[in-house]
Each structure stands twice: as C-alpha cells, then as structure tokens.
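Morning!

This is the sequence you dropped in the shared folder:
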Amino acid sequence: MPRSSAGQVPAGVADYFWGEARERRNLEATLLTVFRSWGYGDVVTPVFEYADTLSARGNRELQAELCRFLDRDGSMLALRADMTIPVARLVGTRLHDAPLPQRYCYAGSVFRDVEPRAGQQREFWQAGVELIGSAAPAADAEVLALTAEALRAAGIAHFRLVLGQMQYFEGLLQALALPPAAQTRLAEAIDRNSEPALEAFMQATRLTSAQQRTLAGLPHLGGTAIDDILQRAEHLALNDTMQRAVANLHDICAALADFDVLDRVTLDLSEIHNLGYYTGITFEALAPGVGFRIASGGRYDNLVGTFGASLPAVGAGLGLERVLLARRKGAAPPPPQPLSPDLVLAAGHNPAAFAFAAAARRAGLIVAFDLEARSAEALCAYARRLAASAAVDWTGASPRLWRLIDRVEMAPASTLPATPAAADVVEIVESLLAEPTFASASPVQEVQQ
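The structure's back. Tokens below.
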C-alpha cells in the first residue's frame, strides 16, 4: 500500500514555529523598517499570476522552475518565482502616471520548482526593494547602499557586494558576432569561471588578436582595486557599448563613495548572472561561511515597458533563509523553543491585576495569564515549564510574586505594592524592572503613564 501523505508536507517546504518563526518575522520587520526609512512604500502582489506573465519575462532557467497549475477556466497559472516581475506589472499597468521615481518595498514568499538545498527550498522568503523611473547611476548606488544597510541591520557584519555590468558582456558579444551556439558555449565558460573552458573556446573560434586579448583578460577583471580594474576594462573594451558600461560603473562607484559603502564593493565584470531581464548592473551579496548569495539584484530598464510605458528600474532582493544562515555563520538553527513569558499572572477577577498586566506589557515585558486558576506551587511549576522569570498570584487582594530563578517568594511590600490605584501600576512595573531577574528580559521601552 502506498504510504499516506496525510499530516506531512511536500519536499521543499517547511513549518516554522516558536522561536524560529519569531526570528523570521523579526528579521522581516527589521528589513521593512530599514526600507521604509529610505522612502520605500509597501507593495503586496498576488502569490500567483498568469503563467505567461512570469514565463515570458524570465530566462530559460526561471521558466523551467515555475510552479504551474490550471485555473478553473483552464488558464495556466503559476506561483510567483520572484517579486520583481509582479511589481513591474503593477507599475506598468496601473501606476505609470505616478510621480517618478517610484520606490517600493516588499516581503513575502516566492516559489521555484528546484531540488531543495541549504539556503533554498521550493518555497522561500524574500524581502526587497524596487526603484522605478530613474536611469541615473545614483539610483543604482542607492539600491546598493540600501542593500548594505539592510544587511547590517539584519546582523550581517561582514559581507561583500560583488558588482558586474551586463552591458560589458553584451558589448563583447556584439563585437564577436558569434552564432548562437558559440554564444552559449562562451557564456557557460564565463559563468562557470573556467579558464580552461575559455581557453578551449578561444582555440576553437576564429578571433582577432584584440578579441583574444579581451577574452583572455575578462576573468581577471575582478577584485577590490576599483580604479585599476576599470582602467583595464576600458583598455580591453572593443566598442562603444563596452566603453559606456565602464563609464557607468565609474559613475556608480563615485556615488557609492558618497554613501560610504565603496569599501564593501568587489568588481567582477565576468559576473553575467541574469534572470532574463537585467540590462545594466547586476550584483550579489556574499558573506563568509555561506556558499551562496544572500542577496542579489540589478538594473532592468526594459521590463516595465513590456506591460505599459517604458520606465528604467533597478532593484534588490534579500533571501531571508540565507540571511539567517549567514547570521548564524552556516550553523544549524537552535532547537525550537516556545516563547518564554517574563511573567505568568494568575489574575482571577482582580481589576488591579489586569491593570498591572497592561502596564507591564507597555513596559516591554511579556505577560501570560494563567487560565486554570492555579495558585502557589502549581502556578510556579507551570511558569517554570514555560521558562518564565516570575510568577504572580493576584487572585486575592494582595499580590504574591515568586522569582523563579531562585524560587524565592518576594515580599509584596517591596516589589508589588498592594494597591488597585491606576497611578501606582507604573510604579509596580518599574520596581519589577529594577530586579536583577529582568536584566536580560525583552527590550524595555519607557513606561508611559
């Protein structure tokens, strides 16, 4: 008999709960807060679209990875494989008359039919930005600088932004005038960063000495010596397209110096990763201990125009799972643990207890009510199972508090003044926060009376 799949999840998706789920939500909130602070407004797009919307604008790899399914009317639909195409559709069809440039940010799940591996499942989470309506190098620099700030806010102290330029490679293909099959072989050799494969291609292809010199030098146009690399790239350029690509990188790097992030940048003109719509710079963020990009993006000046008026654009996306792996330096996540409250409170029907709970929460503490009318040892035992710091029994007129680290019952007069007066609730919370027990509790905001 085939094994039942009831109660299981398909390969490539996962449940997240307790601390791990909270960590993901906190990271998402942190990134969105950073994006909004730069003027990027929220956008939410559908989880699925017509398949043609997504497949006609991606490369062959992206098309092959779409998760397709039939609608009730027979239309072919697909789960979104990235966020950029849906945002471009929205702007091109509905928002092209809005003031330019337009700035959008988002966070949500995307889907690709891939073999699950570390850092990427078939369903994974992205947070990112799109800057639409500006072709200025300062726009590219802004998105790069914002990516850097978002990674720092996410807790990634050490990372590199590897910056390439698709037009440099496109100009090279124009100069070489290769048949399609030869173009594919060259792109594969460069994409694999394989000098033997590139050497074999050069030996099998009729090239001028200048073309051979440029191809041989391409794998060496990478590193942190920005001025030197751009000077060599300009010297190896075979046409105006390649020259303009180098000039564009000059301008972007100058703007990055204004943002004070140029020290994070590594140039790599052999970087030709393209989802099918990039037309200018491409970039990826790399962090030590993680063998894959944790963020990526680029310029896509022709994508919005496939839906309506043509608008230049540049964007970036961060993979939440990958950022979390980088933050843990590749280590596995800790075993999931339930959320631990700071206090477990038995309130009964005492108004003072409920007022106290509200004030404690405003002060930044996590307070969970006991719903089973436990008292004394039973209440403490329950609170210890939740890994709470303290238990409070306020079912009577006077509160009783147990500090669970040392299992000491604390005198109510010194910690929880027995008073129902609303004005004294803040004093109660402040006295609790002063206890050493709460030195490592949740971040505490100023108590508002």
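Headline: The chain has a mean pLDDT of 86.

More detail when I'm at my desk.
O.
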